[in-house]
Amino acid sequence: MTKYEQLIDRVCESEIIYMRTESVKIPAQSLKVNDGDYGIFFNEDAYTTTAEKYVALAHAKAQCDIGAVYFEGSHLLPIMQCDYLARKRAILETLPINLLRAELKECVYDGELDEYELADRLDVPFDFLRRGLRYYLEQGVSFD
Fold this sequence. Notes:
Blueprint: H1 3-13, E1 17-20, E2 28-34, E3 37-42, H2 50-66, H3 76-94, H4 97-110, H5 115-122, H6 126-138
Parallel strand pairs: 1-3
Antiparallel strand pairs: 2-3
């Protein structure tokens, strides 16, 4: 079972309403549907790889988990704040620091794999891996 499939299972087991659809403007849309209830409308066809689906769903789930959803027509600042918080949460959940340290040591330092191969191994897109590494470095985390 892929990480993406495991994440779908976790979303479905949670209180989040999950619907696959082909009719949303945004491929992964999180919204508040009732008082305290959240939903994710997800268009799998909008993504080409499982890694892209995994990260997009992790971001949407993070928005629901922390209540960082916004509505069409929202001002730019709240949208940026919600996206930042969701990105941070998605990084922490999909690239936990202990896993990232272990994989960096095994793959890059000892095994001589490059970042692209590491991203494949972690089943995340390369740009998401770089964003995660940058986030941890900005937080002062050491990868030694």
